[in-house]
Amino acid sequence: MKNMRKVLALLLAFCMLASLGMTAMAVQEETTEENKFDYVVLGASMTNGYGMRYYLDPYLYDHPLELSMEGPGASGYRDNVEGSYPQLVKDALISEGKNVELHQLAQSSMRVEELRYLLDESYSGDEYTRWRFYNPANDSGWWGSGNLEPLRADYQNSIRNAELITYDLGVNNFGVYLSNRLLNGSFAADFANIVGEEYAGRFYQLRDAFHKGILTLVGQADSDIFETLDHYADTLAYAMLGYIVNFDATMKTIRELNPDCDIVVVSIQNPMAGIDMSIKGITIPFGEIFGLMIDMANGYTANFSPYRCEYYYADVQENGHATFFYDELMAYDGDPTTLSQNTLDCFNVYDRKLHANMLVKQYLVAAGVLPADTPTNDNTTYTGENSDIYQTVLYSVYDALARILQAAGKINPMPMDGILAGESMGTAGDELMAGIGTILAGVADSTLRGLNSDDPANAGYDLEAAVNKLLSSDGHKVAAVMGMRTSIGNTFFTHPSPQGHREIADGVLRAYHQRISGARATVELMARLNMRILHIDKLLEQLQGSGENASASTNIVVDLGSNAKVKYVLVNGVYTSGFSMDGTVLTVPCKTRLASTLTVAVEGENGKTVVQTYTLTYQSSSGYTANRIFDGSGIGSISIHLREIISNFLSSLMRSIAKLFPKTAG
Length: 666
Fold this sequence. Notes:
By secondary structure, the chain is of the alpha/beta class.
C-alpha cells in the first residue's frame, strides 16, 4: 500500500501537471481598397479545417501514400476549407453586406510562441519551434527554404490591414507540447528563453521552497521523487506561463500593428474531456484535471490579461469542446452509408496504418474477384467488373472499423495497472493497429464468402467477439483510448466536425455582434474551474482513505483588521454566500482544501469599495492560513496576480498529494 500510494500520488501529479440566414448575392460588388473588409484568422488545426475535405491537396485524397504530415503542405496555411468556421464567419459577414476578403493564416501545431516568432523578429522561439516550424541552424522546418521572411511579411501585413481578427491559439501549448514533453521527454523547458529571467527565477524559487516543504513531510529518504516531480512541474509551468506571457506579447504586437480592428479571442478546447483513469479500482478524472489547466488559461484570457479590454471573447466549450469527429463516431448507428466523407477520409487517407479501401482492393485482387491490374496502392474507387462485390465488401469493412473505434471510445476508465507494471505503450499501440488490420481482413473474407451462397465454409464472422478479444488487455485498452485522442487518424477525431465548426462560428459571430467581453464569460468559466477543484479534492479524500486522521475545518477564517461592512466574498474567483463577521474576524464556509485565493470586498471610506485579496494555504492540522497580497479599487484588480494565483493553487494541490507519502526517517 505504501508504494501504491506513491504511484497514485505521482500519477495524479502527472494528470494535474500534464495537468479553449441569408445567402450571399450571386453577383457581388468588385473588391476595392475602399470597400474591402479584411478578415484575418490566427489559429491552429482546430481553426483551419483539419480533417475536412480538401484541407489536403486534392491529389492526396487519391494518392494517400504520398502524404507526409511533416511537410509544409500539411500546415493548412492559406487553406480555405469549405465548412470550416473561418469560411462560415466570412459567409455570414458577406450576408450582412460586407465585401470580405479572408486571410486564413492558421497553421496546424502552432502555439502562441510560434505566432510571436512570426510577429517579433527579436524572439528566438524554443526547441518546439525548431522541431516543427523553423530551425535557423540549417534553414529547415515548415518555414525553411527561404519561406520565413515572406511568411512574416504576410502575417504582419495581413494584421496591419485587418478589420476583424479571430485569435484561436493555445490548445497546442497544452496538447502537442505537453504530450511530447511528458511521454517522450522532448523539448527542454527553458524558462528564461520563453518567459524571461524574472519569471524563470520566480518559478525556481517557488519550486525550491516547495521541495523543502515536502521534505519535512516525506523525509529525506524519499527525495529521489523530485526528479520525476520536477519534470512534471517544469512541463506544466512552462506550458502555462509560456501561454500566458506569449499571449500577452502577441496581443501587444497585434495592437501595435493595428490599434483599431476588432479582435475575437476563441476559448481553448479540451481534447481530453470525458477520459478517466483507473488504478487498483480507484477512478482518477484525467479529463477533468486536464480541463483544470484549460480553464485556468481561458480564465486568464477572458478576464485577467492586461489586454482583456482589447478584444471580445467567444466561449465555445460548453461541453468541454465543440462537437468533434469523435462525437460523431460515437453516435454511429451501424449503417456505414451514413458515415461522412470526412470519416471515410480518416479511414482511407489520414492514417497510414488503416487505408481501408486499399486493403479491400488488395484482398479482392488476391481472391481473384478484381482484375490483377487493378490499382491497389491508391484510394480511387473501383468501377469495373464486380464493382458491386467491391462496394459490399468495402462498406462491411467501413462498418467494422467504425464499430472497433466506437468500442475503443466507450472504454472508460482507462485501466492503467498494466502500463504501471511495465507494459509498453508503444508496443501496445503497434499490437492494437495490427489487430485492427487482422479483424478487417477477417470481415472482408467473411463478407465475400457470404456473397457466395455455394460456399459451405461460410460461417460468418463474430465481430463483437473479435473486438472484445482485441481490447481484452489493459495495454490495448489504453492504446485505444489515447489513440482515439492523440494518434489514430493523425489526431483526426479530436478536431471539430462540420457541426463543431458551425458551433464555433456561432460563438465568434455572437461575440463580435454583441461585443461580448471576457468579463461576461468569466462567471461561467470560474464556476467550471471551481467544480473541477471540488472533484479533485474529493479524489484526494478517496486516496487518503477514511481511516486517516481527520482534517481540520475547511472554513476560512481571516482577521480583516476592521469591522467594515463586507459587500461580497469570492473563493477561487466564485461568489460565496453564508459568510459571517464577528468583530473584525470574517468566517467563510468552504467545501474544499484546495482553495487558493480569497477576495473580500469591503465598504471603505466615503462608501467606496475596497478589494482585499489573500492567498490561501491549507494544513490538515490547522486549517487555512490567509496571506494578504493586494488591495485594489475593483474586482478586476486581482488580474495582475493570476500567475501567483496559479502557482499557489498548484502548490496547494501538491501539498495535499504530498500527504499521501508515508513519513520516513530523514
